[in-house]
Protein 1
Amino acid sequence: MSGHPLDRPVWNMLGGGQAALAVRHGSAVRIDPAYGPFAAARELSDAAQADLAAMVSRSMGALWLVEPDEWPAPRGTRVVRTAPLVQMVARSPAPDPGGDDIVPLGEADAAQMAALAHATEPGPWGTSTHRYGPFHGIRADGRLIAMAGTRMRPAPGYAEVSGVCTDPAARGRGYAGRLIRRVMAGMCAEGLTPFLHSYAGNTAAIALYRSLGFEIRREMMVTILAAD
């Protein structure tokens, strides 16, 4: 299974620049559970599927596979959910908006970042997700109300915008767009091309991403596996 590195972002991130986060079992790999539930198998062979099944654990929850197509459930597992995605790439990102209200986030902000992520569900969030890469946020009265950051780096030259979320009471103020532009500016300063994933049915989010310079590269699919 070959092609463009973004076609298999999880497999390539855990076999490349983020290999230090990988937990391996034969021909299958998952990210350290503290960072999230992402996993991948080398291919669809019986052996690779068996290795993937061995990594599905009731105690650690379901595994998320992000692939061009729905991934079939290995024996001993079941598909909990599938959802179509679009993968978008920004070849000409919108410029950094500036503004002193956008601040870098770090270890001291981990609890507030987790609370915001769990309240808004921008995607899987674990106890170490905030450590993926640079995150930026906006506060009001000392409380974190919006953030965006970086997650997958599947190949040299690419970085994923992720963790974009805004407190429901603070939506409609343009925070998400400004934060994404700040994250993209940091990526571009490193010579990286920003990309992201969105649920295909989230037309409002896709419209926002287009306004920031993203274009759809291809359709993808997330398959969520759990123990049978």
Protein 2
Amino acid sequence: MMNSPYEYSITLPKNIENDRKYPVIITLHGIGYDERFLMDAVGELTEDYIIIGVRGDLPYGKGYAYYSLKGYGNPERDQFDSAVEKLSYYLEYAFKTYPIDLKRVYLIGFSQGAILSMCLALVLGETIKGIIPMNGFIPEFIKTEYPVKPIDHLSVFLCQGENDPIFPLHVGQANYEYFRSKASSVKYVIYPTGHKVTSNNKSDVVAWLRNELAMSDQANSSGNQNKVSSL
């Protein structure tokens, strides 16, 4: 049996049904936060999604981190590579442990978590259906040195603080241009804030995830009808 490489919290739908698979939201926090930070942001979706908050394994202030920094935008490379590997392994662990619909896996991350969510989507390809990176960037070495896979199936909701001093607007624009050329759909919203997540941002994320769920349910329904018609 696999063991989890990270501490984590999880919420399951209250009326969970046997033999049914559920979409999952996996949240990745920023430096100094913990696994509850983004779980609470999407808490009203607990009846529709399995929600998992993964805690970084490095203590940082009153919270945690997944890797250390040499400076903003300059991760300790060995720790970063290790975090990507361990998070990939964590996903395998979660898929084998919980009733997760493997076609509906979503990652949401803030700051350091946003960076990792984008990296995992590029490295894992079809394993990830959608990502919500909030105030982050894509390190150049990911594009040039990592084994990036096609993401033409991927849904992306990019969130950016207008006055973010860590990841300025031009960084968010670069993220948008990169994903717009490769992903299935990309939404990009700039919020009147700094390096933080606003209540409006949270509401938009919940609405986007509900829309994703509705579209996938509709696609599944159409697929089942087509199967019946062909019999």
Protein 3
Amino acid sequence: METLPREMVMKAVGSVLAEGYEGPQDPRGTWFVNNAPDAGFLATLDALPAEDASRAPGAGRGTVAGHAGHLRFSLEVSRRWVQGDRGPFEWDRSWAVREVDDASWAELRAGVREAYEAFRRALDEAAELDFLRLAGAIGAVAHAAYHLGAVRQMVLELRGASTPAGAAAERG
């Protein structure tokens, strides 16, 4: 059985993770986001005012601020997981944020960015790459992709572009 070098595996995981949070490294080719430079989670959050981030697109639905708080928490858990901490983790509190004002929205966005950067450092510094660490890193990529898609759809709804034509424009 052929094995891949740790560096290659982590470079691939890091590249796909970076695309989800930072946007495409090269807009001529992407792994899963559209090719707009602001297609990543961080730029998507930065483009949204606190008022919109606090507004649910429908009754009983979550908010973009809620998704951001959840992802900040999940990135912290992912970092701890890669460092060998297996919890328990209080996932219920990951959805505690629902509404934000300008100051707390700026703080939350900075917190997501810091948690993302800390997770990336933990991946880079992991001396050992066992099954659980790798599965956790891949899970973090899938989790980011899911929430990025959910948030980008919420933004379309909040801006009134939930029609198929608006969705087509969003895909670029």
Protein 4
Amino acid sequence: MHPSSSDSTLLEMPPATRLTGLPPVIARDTRLVVLGSFPGAASLAAQQYYGHPRNHFWPILSALWDVDLVAMSYPRRLAELRSRGLGLWDVYAACRREGSLDTSIEDAQLNDLASLKRRAPRLRAVAHNGGESARAMRHTRALGVAVCQLPSTSPANASWSFERKLAAWRAVFVEHGVA
């Protein structure tokens, strides 16, 4: 049996490119780490966490802290996070993916999540930003700190309004002393 021309076209498609994530933004006095899944295309291009202009991450933190993080340079944003005890990282160090959707992540390699307590000895909690990140909860629960799942700040999570996301994030930030 010979493959049809459409079958051979599928066989010739190159695999998705192997992508590498961003380094952790974690200080020794970090109390809460927000773990995303893996940076989207806009974030990788900018080499910045939550680099897509429609992602609600920076606007949510701006509202929580009454500071205009969106208007700040990226290094100043990160300094503000560190000064408030917040860290950022992703559950995946590398993966193959076309586009930016979590559903397109393939062949994912986990970051060294077990190193979080060593990197941040004052760590109290880990908050997973969305469902794909939350798949790693068995790894973060092993750290012996509080672990929760927050609604994704991604523009793809249109079922949650900004206000509803903000309320959920506020509750976790208040509980863990970073509000």
